[in-house]
Amino acid sequence: GNTAIVDYLARLGQVLSNGEILQLTSNGSAEISEEAYYDVIKMKTAALFEACCAMGAMSAEASENDIEEARMFGQRLGTIFQIRDDIFDYYDSVEIGKPTGNDMMEGKLTLPVMHVLMKTRDEAMLAIAQRVKSRSATPEEIARLVAFTKDNGGIEYAGKVMEDLHRQALGFIGSRVGDREIRDALAAYLDFV
User: Which band of pLDDT confidence, cut at 50, 70 and 90, is reported for residue 98?
Assistant: First the structure.
């Protein structure tokens, strides 16, 4: 019966729809931008995590400041989750159930490859990236781009971004969550992701 929570949930549907439109627009664009990548995450995966955290805080009648802090924790957690999922795309694994290069086959460039492309400005790889975005890249080209990303530190870079977000999220847990069992459970969940 909390109208603020119902309103938040209704707005979440709008945010997710806008995120899907932004992703489709971004995938079809020639631009390669980490900023656009993060914007999509904030309006899709991270929006779900942040809504759960914010609405949980709202349900406990937390202060506006505490709700905002919980929302930011959720956003960081969701961003970590998405980056980890994106990293899985660079490795074959039966357990994960996601074939290597699957995101690229769908026309998506993720943080590891974006970083390497912007760092190296390798023209041949940039050309393949544009074919990925237009969904005209061959499996062989995608395999080359995946290998190039791994060989040039893309996975390590994404890992460092996750570590920074992890540190910030742990800061929230340590400073804002008083109950030890809840604090330990949130830290364990964060570590798992």
Answer: low
End-to-end CA distance of the chain: 32
Q: How far is CA 152 from the centre of its chain?
A: 21
Q: How far apart are CA 152 and CA 145, in angstroms?
A: 10
Instruction: Give the integer Cα–Cα distance in Å for 55 and 4.
Output: 9
Q: What is the dihedral of CA 118, 124, 129, 134, to 10 degrees?
A: 140
Contact status, residue 96 vs residue 88, Cβ threshold 8 Å = yes
**Backbone phi, psi, residue 61, to 5°:** 60, 40
Token output for 66: 């505490």
Q: What pTM did the predictor assign?
A: 0.91
Distance CA 53, CA 33 (A): 28
Q: Give CA–CA dist 37/48, Å, rounded.
A: 16
- Looking at every residue in the chain, the average pLDDT score rounds to 93
Average pLDDT over residues 53-59: 95
Q: How far apart are CA 101 and CA 110, in angstroms?
A: 10
